[in-house]
């Protein structure tokens, strides 16, 4: 499939998706979201891809949902089409997805980054949920995911005032895993993804599933889920290989089995 709003590349075992609507600071419209879902799902099914990086431009990861495209929406249409419902297709990707964020990640852009498995931020990154200034509120998970990332007080302040936070504040409050220089962002994220892609794919996917489970269930249920998955790993060839390689002081050769 050819894409008009995103650029799709592979770098070794890493799938790289770059949001590409520079004229609108990568504002997210239906076509872009449809293309993104398709590209992510294609990488997810591709046996040669072990990890995915999602990025934008130097100026903007994404400046939110496309305001011009939705300004005239009517309630009944948004309800009938279940507007925004397919945005979280990202969360159904089973391989890890890293958001590499430079510049603005606002509104739906911040929400999209939070749907990824972790966020690496450039020192230029700015995060925020400015929807309140438009007479609406976050609609793609912002009030829920931001609260889980940064806690109620900061999430409430950001959603109610629309103020942006810089990369330092985002790291300090747990929204991003680390900050890198803007010029190194994509290379750094791809290198990180490449490292993940070298590990056993089923083990990586189970690890992702287990961490994500912590969002959905109680601690005791989550720990039980983790323990069962951990036990199941002893049925894999890669567990045997990983531990044997450690004992034999060599690099493991995982077979994804
Ligand atoms: N939708 C549509 N177009 C957008 C856009 C958006 N979210 N953000 C920026 N653009 C467009 C601008 O209209 C402008 O286009 P024109 O040149 O045709 O006028 C172009 O991108 C460049 O933007 P600016 O001139 O505004 O650039 P700037 O550097 O002066 O400001 C900015 C950058 C602070 C990010 C500013 O563009 C801005 O505030 N954007 C809107 C941010 C926002 O409110 N996002 C939330 C959207 S609602 C949402 O996301 C709901 C949800 O939860 C899903």
From TrEMBL:
Sorted alphabetically, the keyword list is: Fatty acid metabolism, Lipid metabolism, Lyase
Root EC class: lyase
**Gene3D superfamilies in the record:** 2-enoyl-CoA Hydratase, Chain A, domain 1 (3.90.226.10), Lyase 2-enoyl-coa Hydratase, Chain A, domain 2 (1.10.12.10)
> Might you give the EC number(s) for this enzyme?
4.2.1.17
Q: Which InterPro entries match?
A: ClpP/crotonase-like_dom_sf, Enoyl-CoA_hyd/isom_CS, Enoyl-CoA_hydra/iso, Enoyl-CoA_hydra_C
Stated family? Belongs to the enoyl-CoA hydratase/isomerase family.
The UniProt function text for this chain reads: Could possibly oxidize fatty acids using specific components.
According to UniProt, the name of this protein is enoyl-CoA hydratase
Source organism: Pseudovibrio exalbescens
């Amino acid at each position: 499939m050819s894409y008009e709003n995103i650029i799709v590349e592979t770098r070794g075992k890493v799938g790289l998706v770059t949001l590409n609507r520079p004229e609108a600071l990568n504002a997210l419209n239906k076509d872009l979201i449809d293309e993104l879902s398709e590209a992510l799902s294609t990488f997810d099914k591709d046996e040669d891809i072990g990890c995915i990086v999602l990025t934008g431009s130097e100026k903007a990861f994404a400046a939110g949902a496309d305001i011009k495209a939705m300004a005239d929406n009517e309630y009944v249409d948004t309800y009938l089409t279940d507007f925004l419902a397919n945005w979280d297709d990202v969360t159904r990707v089973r391989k890890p997805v890293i958001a590499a964020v430079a510049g603005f990640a606002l509104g739906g852009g911040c929400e999209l980054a939070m749907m990824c498995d972790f966020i690496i931020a450039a020192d230029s990154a700015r995060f925020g949920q400015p929807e309140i200034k438009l007479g609406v509120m976050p609609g793609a998970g912002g009030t829920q995911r931001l609260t889980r990332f940064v806690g109620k007080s900061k999430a409430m302040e950001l959603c109610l005032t629309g103020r942006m936070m810089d990369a330092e504040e985002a790291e300090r409050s747990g929204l991003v895993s680390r900050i890198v220089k803007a010029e190194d962002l994509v290379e750094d994220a791809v290198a990180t993804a490449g490292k993940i892609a070298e590990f056993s794919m089923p083990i990586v996917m189970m690890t992702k599933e287990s961490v994500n489970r912590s969002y959905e269930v109680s601690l005791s249920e989550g720990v039980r889920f983790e323990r069962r998955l951990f036990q199941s790993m002893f049925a894999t060839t890669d567990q045997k290989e990983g531990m044997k390689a450690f004992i034999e002081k060599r690099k493991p050769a995982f077979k994804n089995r």
